[in-house]
Design a protein that fits this description.
Blueprint: H1 4-11, E1 19-26, E2 52-55, E3 61-62, H2 68-81, E4 89-91, E5 111-113, H3 114-124, H4 127-137, H5 139-148, E6 155-156, E7 173-175, H6 177-189, H7 195-206, E8 236-244, E9 247-255, E10 259-267, H8 274-295
Antiparallel strand pairs: 1-2, 1-10, 3-7, 4-5, 6-7, 8-9, 9-10
Helix pairs in contact: 1-8, 2-4, 2-5, 2-7, 3-4, 6-7
Length: about 300
């Protein structure tokens, strides 16, 4: 099934009062090009025609917690080079603690290893763990990695905060679906700086517990063993979601008979009410179902 079907699924959102941005890369296409090559996505498809698609995928949007993948990528890089050790203890400071998703903000223990914090960030999008890791490596380091990987619009602007007042960045992070899908493609290809760092990031993503967006309508076992090599007829997913005011996003890798790196971001004016939020979630799930059909065509199930 052609990835053009994914663009068509995204196009069904055109009448909705929201922006839906979609990017997908077929990592096993015989003519697939490097994930840093230019893509003309103005018509809803890519220049190669079959190995990748883009639908409004160069629009810079708030991407919520999906941008935590860039932070985790920098940690994975440092663990691979030995600049950082996974068993290093990081004390969670009062300024790190944040509400929202996660567990650490509700626990009394203060000392956690770097690996602990990474697993918590990846699996339950722990905001307190994220802030501790971000304090450890600094936002400048994530910006340098984004530049190195040619992710020109993916930016962490600040730590995660419960309240954003005057003088603070209005959102945690912004980016494009195109850059987010490219980051996953780098990891899947082993080119996210190194093969070791790439594999580590994918294993963290595999631990994500939120499969309520892109994977929601996809027949899969989130706990199936064997990642990244699925059993015959099985589909495996590793992903990272993001939820914020007026934002729903999902970034990941689907592995079936084909491997697809994807990013889907929806953004809307919250003044429009809960019905628009429901429409955004439905749109992400619709794209996810089509992505799954591309990764695992019905005749292979």
């Amino acid at each position: 099934m052609s990835l053009a079907r994914v663009a068509a699924a995204a196009g069904r959102s055109a009448a909705l009062p929201l922006v839906l941005s979609v990017s997908a890369i077929d990592l096993d296409a015989t003519h697939a090009t490097d994930c840093t090559d230019g893509i003309d996505s103005t018509d809803g498809t890519d220049s190669a025609g079959t190995d990748r698609i883009g639908f409004h995928d160069e629009v810079v949007l708030p991407v919520a917690s999906t941008a935590k993948l860039l932070l985790l990528a920098e940690i994975a890089r440092r663990l691979d080079t030995g600049e950082l050790h996974g068993d290093k203890t990081v004390d969670v400071l009062p300024e790190d603690r944040a509400g929202g998703t996660g567990l650490l903000g509700r626990l009394g223990r203060t000392g956690w290893t770097v690996e602990d914090l990474c697993w918590l960030t990846a699996s339950v999008s722990d905001n307190t763990a994220t802030n501790a890791l971000l304090r450890l490596v600094g936002r400048d380091a994530t910006a340098r990695l984004a530049e190195r990987l040619a992710l020109r619009d993916l930016t962490l602007h600040d730590s995660v905060r419960d309240v954003r007042g005057p003088g603070l960045p209005p959102v945690f992070a912004t980016g494009t679906a195109r850059d987010l899908a490219r980051l996953v493609a780098h990891a899947a290809r082993g080119t996210m700086v190194s093969a070791g760092a790439s594999a580590r990031l994918l294993q963290w993503m595999r631990a994500n517990t939120d499969h309520g967006l892109v994977p929601a309508l996809v027949a899969h076992d989130p706990y199936a063993p064997g990642f990244p090599a699925p059993a015959p007829g099985a589909l495996l997913i590793a992903n990272k979601t993001g939820t914020d005011t007026g934002v729903r996003a999902d970034v990941g890798l689907l592995i079936g008979t084909r491997r697809l790196a994807y990013a889907v971001v929806a953004h809307w004016d919250t003044a429009l009410g809960a019905s628009t939020e429901r429409a955004a979630v439905h749109a992400l799930r619709d794209v996810g179902r089509t992505l799954a059909d591309c990764a695992m065509p019905p005749d292979h199930v």
